[in-house]
Write a structure and sequence with these properties.
3 helices; binds zinc ion; Alpha-Beta Plaits
């Protein structure tokens, strides 16, 4: 396992599905911040074999709907004085608005830019969502 400085005060996003760490990193614009951040790819996980981890040395607002829709097995640890003070488990939101975009070229949201993208949870087991406008089905995990 990589040896990385522990953070004093901030957030550790743990148990990220391998490959999603980079997506979350980009979504949170962590490549543009001036505080310390670390993206660890393919760390060893006892449960899953491999996982990604993001360490953020700052307390920032996280979009739990985005993270939950992407991967509800993520754990968010809030760190104060190098100790985890809070663990947040995510849930898949029933509805998502304005986060993901529908990829169906015939969907009305692709052509009309002022329509807010909306998705509804279709099946928790397969982690699939359905576009409210065209019924295309998506999972954002892979
Ligand atoms: Zn659509």
């Amino acid at each position: 396992m990589l040896n990385i400085d522990s953070i004093r005060r901030g957030i550790v996003i743990d148990h990220i599905q391998p490959g999603n760490g980079f997506k979350i990193f980009q979504y949170l614009n962590l490549d543009k911040v001036d505080y310390r951040v670390a993206l660890i790819i393919n760390a060893i996980s006892k449960k899953k074999g491999r996982k990604d981890i993001i360490k953020i040395e700052n307390v920032i607002d996280l979009d739990f709907k985005f993270l939950g829709a992407l991967d509800d097995e993520i754990t968010i640890n809030i760190v104060e004085d190098e100790v985890i003070t809070e663990k947040i488990r995510l849930e898949m939101p029933d509805r998502i608005e304005g986060i993901f975009t529908c990829k169906n070229p015939r969907c009305i949201t692709t052509n009309e830019r002022n329509i807010v993208q909306r998705f509804s949870l279709l099946d928790r087991e397969s982690k699939s969502y359905k576009c409210d406008y065209c019924d295309n089905i998506y999972t954002w995990e892979e």
